[in-house]
Fold this sequence. Notes:
Layout: E1 2-6, E2 13-17, E3 22-26, H1 29-34, E4 38-42, E5 46-48, E6 55-58, E7 66-70, E8 78-82, E9 88-93, E10 106-110
Parallel strand pairs: 3-10
Antiparallel strand pairs: 1-2, 2-5, 4-9, 6-7, 7-8, 8-9
Amino acid sequence: MKNIGSCHCGNIRFEVEGTIDSALSCNCSICQRKGNLLWFVPASAFKLLTPGDNVGTYTFNKHVIEHKFCQVCGIGPYAEGTDPKGNKMAAINIRCIEGIDLDKVSIVNHNGRDS
């Protein structure tokens, strides 16, 4: 299934292939503040539809996850990194997916604060 997403102003638009069965709610210092609900997919399932110059990058702590945000509206629709096995992945903030019914998505809590 193809999912379309964006930041608030549309300066960043993307598509992601896959079925959103669950999302992760992390309590780390950045996810808690942003209210992210993250769906992890292989990087090959993610496609940026707008120019890469529209995207800002923020890293912190161990600098292994690149948190992407719109330089116009400030919304962070996705992040890029690697999974524990070294595979490239994307973490999609499902709150930025068009037409999603969040009541139908299973939310898994993750203690990222103590990781």
